[in-house]
């Protein structure tokens, strides 16, 4: 239809041309209109409406000089579409709390207290990879999702994260997705956490560059051409992501497959790589670097410089310790060349992973006395935060 009209229009123009030449008045009008159009075009070029250009310019890093592969181009189109979808916040917006645990959750009662009175603003999902959990709190009953075995350091860890996200994304009210371990305890009250996460456009994914043996040494050239070594990043597994980023994680197949095949324990040349520490930091560093905070809302104490974070005994759990943790405002990254890198960070140490008695299992066997001490100290802490 449109095409037809265009043809008609140019036919008419062709017919009226001879008459134009003979009328100087019309000629002047044409000149005026033409110069007006030229001014509009120049104006539009100099001052483009920001709405149309900025989303595309903002989110994507410069395209590499080489030609993109077919899969890469497809990924970029999907990611761009997801990232430019506006965020919808409503009264019924919820936060998904996703527990990745080997079995029973030791801190259910503590979390119950955290959630109390906030029904309709949260949803709970539990992925128990070893044994069926026994739930002591009614709000956890019926929240187990289908799960598979998780082996430490392998892609099965990422698979479990994606499974949790896919389940939680089914609820369209879920706007933010927090990954938690069985040893996480809440350090702020619900309102504080809800307002903080709903009030930001960022995802909290830990992300840093580590040139040493536990960082870029793990990179494999087999990830070329899509993942170059300069983009390889590291970070702790415990993330909290906004809805668009959650969608990106489950939509990604290209980078997921690269990491599944070429970032794993016992690679051909005898090196080890752990997808749960590198996959998400690397992909988001490449695809939406300004969309992530580069730090995690979950505090883990790596200061002992060992393979596993600091473990706590019941006697360690004091109000002062919890206060210290909630007031942390710098993130510390100890890279494997033994350098300490600090970055200012927001005041949201939301949870704390109080690990971890048996280092070789993917579980954290938190002892009973520790749970008891935590429960008491944390309840006091939650009350303190509530009353301040
Ligand atoms: C988040 O993004 C929206 C849309 O781009 C913007 O209007 C809003 O101010 C941003 N919020 C924050 C806290 O940056
Ligand atoms: C996170 O780090 C990247 C560089 O890797 C930077 O471009 C980005 O702005 C940082 N994010 C924030 C929120 O500062
Ligand atoms: C808390 O922080 C203060 C000041 O940095 C420090 O002196 C104290 O030992 C810390 N206490 C605990 C229990 O970590």
TrEMBL record:
Keywords assigned by UniProt, alphabetized: Glycoprotein, Glycosyltransferase, Membrane, Transferase, Transmembrane, Transmembrane helix
One Pfam family linked to the record: Branch
Record-linked InterPro entries: BC10-like (IPR044174), Glyco_trans_14 (IPR003406)
Subcellular location: Membrane
Membrane topology type: Single-pass type II membrane protein
Keyword Plastid: no
A GO-annotated cellular component: membrane
Listed GO MF terms: glycosyltransferase activity
Annotated transmembrane regions: 28-47
Main location: membrane
PANTHER family named in the record: CORE-2/I-BRANCHING BETA-1,6-N-ACETYLGLUCOSAMINYLTRANSFERASE FAMILY PROTEIN-RELATED, CORE-2_I-BRANCHING BETA-16-N-ACETYLGLUCOSAMINYLTRANSFERASE FAMILY PROTEIN
Protein's recorded name: Uncharacterized protein
Organism for this UniProt entry: Urochloa decumbens
Lineage, highest ranks first: Eukaryota, Viridiplantae, Streptophyta, Embryophyta, Tracheophyta
């Amino acid at each position: 239809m449109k095409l037809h009209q265009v043809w008609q229009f140019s036919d008419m123009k062709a017919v009226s041309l001879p008459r134009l030449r003979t009328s100087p008045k019309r000629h002047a009008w044409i000149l005026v209109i033409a110069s007006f159009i030229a001014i509009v075009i120049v104006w539009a070029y100099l001052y483009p409406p920001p709405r149309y250009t900025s989303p595309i310019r903002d989110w994507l890093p410069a395209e590499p000089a080489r030609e993109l592969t077919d899969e890469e181009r497809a990924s970029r189109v999907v990611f761009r579409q997801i990232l430019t979808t506006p965020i919808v916040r409503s009264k019924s917006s919820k936060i998904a709390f996703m527990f990745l645990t080997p079995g029973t959750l030791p801190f259910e009662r503590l979390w119950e207290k955290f959630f109390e009175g906030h029904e309709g603003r949260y949803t709970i999902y539990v992925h128990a990879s070893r044994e069926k959990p026994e739930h002591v709190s009614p709000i956890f009953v019926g929240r187990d999702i289908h799960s598979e075995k998780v082996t430490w350091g392998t892609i099965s860890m990422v698979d479990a994260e994606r499974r949790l996200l896919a389940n939680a994304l089914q609820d369209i009210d879920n706007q933010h997705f927090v990954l938690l371990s069985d040893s996480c305890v809440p350090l702020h009250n619900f309102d504080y956490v809800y307002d903080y996460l709903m009030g930001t456009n960022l995802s909290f994914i830990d992300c840093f560059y580590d040139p040493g043996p536990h960082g870029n040494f793990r990179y494999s050239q087999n990830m070329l051409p899509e993942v170059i070594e300069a983009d390889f990043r590291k970070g702790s597994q415990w993330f909290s992501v906004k809805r668009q980023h959650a969608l990106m994680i489950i939509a990604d197949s290209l980078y997921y497959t690269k990491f599944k095949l070429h970032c794993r324990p016992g690679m051909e040349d005898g090196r080890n790589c752990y997808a749960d520490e590198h996959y998400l930091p690397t992909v988001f560093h490449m695809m939406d670097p300004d969309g992530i905070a580069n730090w995690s809302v979950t505090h883990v104490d790596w200061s002992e410089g060992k393979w596993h974070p600091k473990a706590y005994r019941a006697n360690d759990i004091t109000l002062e310790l919890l206060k210290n943790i909630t007031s942390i405002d710098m993130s510390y990254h100890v890279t494997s060349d033994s350098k300490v890198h600090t970055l200012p960070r927001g005041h949201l140490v939301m949870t704390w992973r109080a690990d971890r008695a048996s280092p070789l299992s993917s579980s954290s066997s938190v002892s009973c006395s520790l749970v008891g001490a935590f429960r008491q100290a944390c309840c006091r802490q939650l009350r303190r935060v509530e009353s301040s």
